[in-house]
């Protein structure tokens, strides 16, 4: 038993929980500016929310209509416990269900290996986004990956 659950989340109803996680990880832990974090794309995105056994939010990620995965964040104490994998698998399944043939993401360079395990391939050179090294990654969704 992983000790957490995943569910699709509504930005309109669940934004306090989603914001709590993203503020803790991106704004406070990684020092990303508020202006960069809140890009206005959340209302049109599909969100997944991870909750612990007593329904406290512990992780989130989003899928934009254009097939871009992003804003994947897991609270520090829940990392390396399968939460990130669960979030990504759920978004990949959602993309397939919506017949999105390819998904992209900008991975923080130090975790690119995590995304490779799910069929993502780096495209292009490393770049700096929000002061952090990133690499663009792409996965084709043919039904044979995660």
List the helices and strands and how they pair.
Blueprint (H helix, E strand, L loop, with lengths): L3 E6 L1 H19 L4 H4 L8 E7 L4 E7 L5 E6 L8 H15 L4 E7 L3 H5 L4 E2 L4 E3 L2 E9 L6
Antiparallel strand pairs: 1-2, 2-3, 3-4, 5-8, 6-8, 7-8
What is the H/E string?
EHHEEEHEHEEE
Gap from first CA to last CA = 20 Å
DSSP summary, beta strand count: 8
CATH superfamily: Gcn5-related N-acetyltransferase (GNAT)
Show unreliable segments: none
Helix fraction bin? 25-40%
How are the strands ordered across the major sheet?
1-2-3-4
Q: Which term fits the overall shape?
A: globular
Radius of gyration from the alpha-carbon trace, in angstroms: 14 Å
CATH topology title = Aminopeptidase
| Biggest sheet architecture | 4 strands, antiparallel
Task: Report the mean per-residue pLDDT as an integer.
Answer: 94
User: Domains counted in the coordinates: how many?
Assistant: 1
- Reported CATH architecture: 3-Layer(aba) Sandwich
